[in-house]
Amino acid sequence: MNKLRANDENVWKDYIRRDDIQVNDEELENDLLQDDESLAAYIEALTSLEQELPKLADQDRFTEKVMRSIPIAEQKYHTKSTWSRNWSRHPLFHYVIAASITLFLMSCGLFDYITLGTEKVIHQTEGQSLSQQLLDKTSSWIDKIKP
Q1: CA–CA dist 142, 146 (Å, integer)
Q2: Looking at residue 101, what is its pLDDT?
Q3: How confident is the model at residue 32 (pLDDT cuts 50, 70, 90)?
Q4: pLDDT digits (tens, 9 = 90+) for 52-77
């Protein structure tokens, strides 16, 4: 669009009044977004037509109507009720549970019981391979655990 034409105050007055204009509305709106001079000409035309434009009868009602027409996006913050429902999904909760189970098993001596015969397995004797010794030791652990 011609810059001189977009900066013409009469074009913007016709646009504001919604009179028959030769320029497409989309072109004018794009020009408003991209050109500061066009925006200044639009504001000047709007100011000069301020007395001619109709006034809002009830601004509060208009504001409420506009606000109700705006779709409410998903809340980006957690409310108290959302937090209370989703606390079990928080990673910190899982870490606390895992640490508690580990401490419980350590206090019961389960890890000590599992590692009782490892010193003998580590010292390799002649004749058997290390993998065979580990296999034998594992079998003996399973036999000890089974009643």
Answers
A1: 6
A2: 93
A3: confident
A4: 888 888 888 988 988 888 887 655 55
Residue type for 63, please?
T
CA nearest neighbour of 31 among 56, 60, 50, 11: 11
Q: How far is CA 63 from CA 57, 69, 91, 102, in A?
A: 12, 10, 42, 58
**Three-state secondary structure along the chain?**
CCHHHHCCHHHHHHHHHCCCCCCCHHHHHHHHHHCHHHHHHHHHHHHHCCCCCCCCCCHHHHHHHHHHHCCCCCCCCCCHHHHHHHHHHCHHHHHHHHHHHHHHHHHHCHHHHHCCCHHHHHCCCCCCCHHHHHHHHHHHHHHHHCC
The alpha carbon dihedral of 127, 129, 133, 135 has a sign of negative
DSSP state, residue 128: S
Please choose, from the candidates 135, 95, 97, 90, the residue with its C-alpha nearest in 3D space to the C-alpha of residue 117.
135
pTM: 0.40
The full length of the chain comes to 147
